[in-house]
Amino acid sequence: MKMTRRTLLGAAICMGLGWGVMSSAMSADKPLTMGFSQVGAESEWRTANTVSIKDAAKKAGVNLKFADAQQKQENQVKAIRSFIAQKVDVIAFSPVVESGWDTVLREAKAAKIPVILTDRAVNVTDKSLYVTFIGSDFVEEGRRAARWLLERAKTMPAGDINIVELQGTVGSAPAIDRKAGFEQEIKANPNLKIIRSQTGDFTRAKGKEVMEAFLKADGKKINVLYAHNDDMAIGAIQAIEEAGLKPGKDILVISIDGVKGAFEAMMAGKLNVTVECSPLLGPQLMSIAKDVKAGKEVPKRITTEESVFPAEVAAKEFPNRKY
Question: Per residue in 136-164, is it b (16+ CB within 10 Å) or e — as a string?
Answer without folding.
Answer: bbbbebbbbbbbbbeebbeeeeeeebbbb
